[in-house]
Amino acid sequence: MLKKYNDSSALASMLISSMNAATWVWNIQKGEVSFNARWAEMLGYTLEELQPISIKTWEKLSHPDDYESSSLLLEKVFHREQEFYSIEMRMKHKSGNWVWILDSGKVIEWDEKGAPLIALGTHIDINERKQIEEQSKNNEAFLRQIIENTKDIIYRIDMNGVMTYLSRAWTTLLGHPIEAVLGDSFRPFAHPDDLEKLVHFFEKVKETNHIQDIDYYRLKDRNGNWKVFESSATPIIEQEEVIGYAGIARDITEKKRIEAALIREKDFFEATLMCVGDAVIVTNEQGFIINMNPIAQELTGYSPIEAIGHPLAHIFNVIHQKTKKPHEDIVKFVLSKKKPIQLHHLILINKNGEFIHIDDSAAPIISSKGIIEGIVIVFRNVSEEIARQEQIEYLGYHDQLTNCYNRHYLDENIEHINCVENYPLGIISIDLNNLKLVNDTMGHQKGDYVIQGAASIIRSSLTRGDYLFRMGGDEFLVFVPNTNTQELESMHNFIIDEVKKRCDENCPLTLSFGYEVLYQYDQDLYHGIKKADNRMYEHKRQCKSTLTK
């Protein structure tokens, strides 16, 4: 029986170890509690730093809101309303941040009056999972905000054509309340002449198992008017089977009206051309410019005198946004298609050499006899939209306080940094000393000022190609490609000298510094980071030792 108990105890110990869990034992009536080393480690401490330890220690480190919830759960266990106790709660890390842990336990011994005597349990680090959950919620909210505010209709339909999701633009563009049509087929809203075309469109999406486009169909609005749309749709696949379609529908009623007006009312072309809000360029069949509106003149930088009579490529120099390669001859492309086309993700290089992001459409000009007489190009400046998108990406990869790269950028680009072309690769670990003291005595605003000062000093020591990361509240990490220990030592000395120059009562800044050089590409990068960290912490201990003498 003893062997069986010992075996069970050993198994439990192995299980806890494999879970990397902290354990606690609580003498409830005496208020005494013992934790293992892993518990202190989760919070950035050693057990010795937290001595003497009691239940008050746990209470002090617990988030007030979570402590109250935890206490209510414990009362239920103490009154035997439930056997186990488990709660996700926050505890304060040594760095000052709140970290999430899963606290679980139960009472294992009661006194003769039925009062709880001994409870034991575990703490499991779930901080990373909670951060991922929070990021996922933020991303979902951000995506929903984009979808609900776009001017295009975002839709989902099932295999029977029943609409299962519609964005707010459905009501904005067509006037039908979303709640009144969800669960109904799209067919009653489609023009009878376009219905077969739409059904074939979705069948093609299913057959090809790939995104497809439809360039013209009509939907009836609430007032009985027909609006023209173009759409792209992609299959929704579950367990390798298409269960529906998701897509975007764009209202092109106005664009189609303009295109039709160009064909039907050529005599009024000039007036229409000059009133269009987008940039417009018109060429003849040979691709020579015959007209352009003021917006086109503004964006290209060319006046009508400079442009008219010249080939389109003379003033409309466009390249692909990603590849930076020139786009093929647009005139030949439109003439070969013999129908309107959409051109996205292009950059116009204007007369002044400025790069302007544009969205472009081009269509053949067809006479009443069906003869192509030229093309019309309609484009607009989307540089601000692109800049907003790039700003969003920038914020995702940079620390907002210091503009250094953040940990997310390191995770996403570690392979780019750890490439053979960067070796020998220097790794520098830097830590701000006494930041908590600055925050406590001078305020967090002063602490932020000190952090920014440290980032500025470190950045001033870097050369082109170096990577500077802010890894935490007071931690920085630098990667220096193609370097050696002498250069890193010079950087260290430079940083220390700059700190001394700037350090005063307004900026009480000192740094701890550690570095490592990896000379071979097959060396473990994370091991190199750890060695740099260890040397930094040794330097930090030396600094503390010097202060105490």
Structure explained in plain terms:
The chain is α+β, with helices and mostly antiparallel strands and 549 residues long. The chain has four domains: 13-126, PAS domain (Beta-Lactamase), CATH 3.30.450; 150-251, Beta-Lactamase; 268-386, PAS domain (Beta-Lactamase), CATH 3.30.450; 399-548, Alpha-Beta Plaits, CATH 3.30.70. 43% of the residues lie in helices and 29% in strands. The protein has 21 helices and 20 strands. The protein has a six-stranded antiparallel sheet. It is flat and about 100 Å long. 24% of the residues are buried. Residues 1-12 have low confidence and may be disordered.
Describe the SSE topology.
Elements: H1 2-18, E1 22-27, E2 32-35, H2 37-42, H3 47-50, H4 55-61, H5 64-78, E3 84-92, E4 98-110, E5 116-125, H6 127-149, E6 153-158, E7 163-166, H7 169-174, H8 178-181, H9 192-208, E8 212-220, E9 226-238, E10 241-251, H10 253-264, H11 269-275, E11 279-284, E12 289-292, H12 294-300, H13 304-307, H14 312-315, E13 317-320, H15 330-337, E14 341-349, E15 355-366, E16 372-381, H16 383-397, H17 407-417, E17 425-432, H18 435-442, H19 444-460, E18 467-470, E19 475-481, H20 485-502, E20 511-518, H21 525-548
Antiparallel strand pairs: 1-2, 1-5, 3-4, 4-5, 6-7, 6-10, 8-9, 9-10, 11-12, 11-16, 13-14, 14-15, 15-16, 17-19, 17-20, 18-19
